[in-house]
Specification:
This protein is of the alpha+beta class and 415 residues long. Helices cover 25% and strands 30% of the residues. It folds into two domains: 174 residues, Rossmann fold; 210 residues, Thrombin, subunit H (Beta Barrel).
Length: 415
């Protein structure tokens, strides 16, 4: 009987870990903060974890033949937003314009023990200065448990992440020491993070997504789809196998269109660019082609060209300015040009039909793709006072397709 009471008490105490921590003071760590250091600390810092880490979904076989599915990425993000600002009130996710003096970079692995209902996080932390030099790194662990009691599973992942993050941050503060922390607080503000220096802070980070864009005028500005660059910390275009940093000039999420321009002084404006005029108005049955860089992780660095027709003057329900065409596209084609055989821009590649949803409705599809029409592209550019021209368009498919390959470029997104 005594054993039963003790065991039950242990389960109940462990199960309390499923209650989400509400502030950084509640989080227990192995390392204790030096008594000479007090928090909060008014040093502007930024934190960063790759998108894959913050959107991760963990799947694991359960004992009854089913599967556990945990959205651990959002719990990681929630823990970051709790712990770092709780210690550094000015802490924020790394973004352009930030004047952070240090950047905390995190990556993690996660494990789950279904018998005890325990989540374990192994966290790798690197802190870099504004020159990208590593000044601190650590490996820490956090864990939290339901004590075998069902429910609260997402909470235990957040608690485990929070514990590991606070442990790493405490170790960093102790290593830095109160004197250096005070000196850093009183030092001059750091310069803003820009497109020119952000990759220095993210050494070794690869783009999380690629799309297509195309040069639209003599200034070398690039038109692409808005969703290709949404949420990007940095965008680049890759032209002739050389990457160039860009900045956002104009964007419409409603139309799914955006314009980028190069910030790199080494960039040389290409001779070829898309011809945009009323001659490219969408007409039913018009023969068109697209150029783009689909499936960049599988295919070569050469632009891909596909052929089709304008198959409908309407697109998906609720989409503004959308039309349907049959030239095949794949992931990475978004943002590419849709061009008629006279070399005039007919539209901008925006999306394709969701085949899984169509099949679930008992139907089949083939090459049902959508683009933003020439009319709405010109309206978007006019509203943003951006130049374009339809003069000197190519005559004939061979010349038009050759030019399109030359002015089509790859768009890279870092998050």
């Amino acid at each position: 009987m005594r054993f039963l009471v003790i065991a039950l008490t242990a389960v109940l105490i462990t199960g309390c870990n499923a209650v989400p921590v509400k502030n950084v003071q509640e989080i227990k760590t192995t390392t204790k903060l030096n008594k000479t250091i007090s928090t909060p600390i008014s040093i502007p810092v930024a934190y960063y974890a790759e998108e894959e880490q913050l959107t991760r979904v963990m799947q694991q076989q359960s004992g009854d033949g089913g599967r556990w599915v945990f959205a651990v990425g959002p719990q990681f993000n929630e823990a970051l937003e709790l712990v770092l600002p709780g210690i550094f009130p000015a802490a924020q996710q790394l973004k352009l314009g930030s004047q952070a003096k240090y950047v905390f970079k995190f990556s993690s692995t996660v494990d789950f023990d279904p018998f005890f209902g325990t989540a374990t996080v192994d966290l790798s932390t690197k802190v870099v200065d504004r020159n990208g030099q590593i000044i601190f790194k650590s490996l820490t662990e956090g864990s939290s448990s339901t004590g075998g009691i069902g429910g609260g599973y997402e909470t235990i992942f957040m608690n485990a992440y929070a514990q590991a993050i606070k442990e790493a941050t405490t170790q960093f503060l102790n290593k830095t020491g109160s004197a250096d922390l005070a000196a850093i607080q009183n030092a001059q503000p750091a310069p803003p993070v820009t497109t020119e220096n952000v990759l220095t802070l993210l050494d070794g980070v690869e783009p999380v997504g690629t799309g297509t864009g195309f040069f639209m005028n003599e200034s070398g500005q690039v038109l692409t789809a808005s969703h290709v660059i949404n949420g990007c910390l940095l965008t680049q275009i890759k032209h002739n196998e050389q990457a160039y940093n860009t900045r956002l000039v104009a964007q419409s999420r409603i139309l799914d269109a955006a314009v980028l321009e190069m910030t790199d002084p080494a960039f040389q404006v290409p001779n070829a660019y898309a011809r945009i005029s009323s001659e490219g108005e969408v007409k039913l049955g018009t023969q068109v082609f697209t150029t783009g860089y689909p499936l960049s992780s599988l295919l070569t660095a050469q632009a891909n060209l596909t052929l089709g027709n304008v198959s409908s003057l309407g697109g998906l329900k609720g989409a503004i300015g959308s039309f349907q065409y049959s030239a095949p596209i794949q992931s990475g084609s978004s943002g590419g040009p849709i061009v008629n055989y006279n070399g005039q821009l007919t539209g901008l590649v925006t999306s394709t039909i969701n085949e899984d949803k169509v099949k679930s409705a008992g139907a089949t599809t083939q090459n049902i793709n959508f683009g933003l029409s020439n009319h709405y592209i010109r309206q978007f550019l006019d509203n943003n006072n951006l130049s374009y021209s339809g003069k000197k368009s190519a005559k004939g498919f061979e010349k038009a397709s050759q030019q399109a390959v030359e002015y089509t470029t790859r768009v890279l997104c870092y998050k």
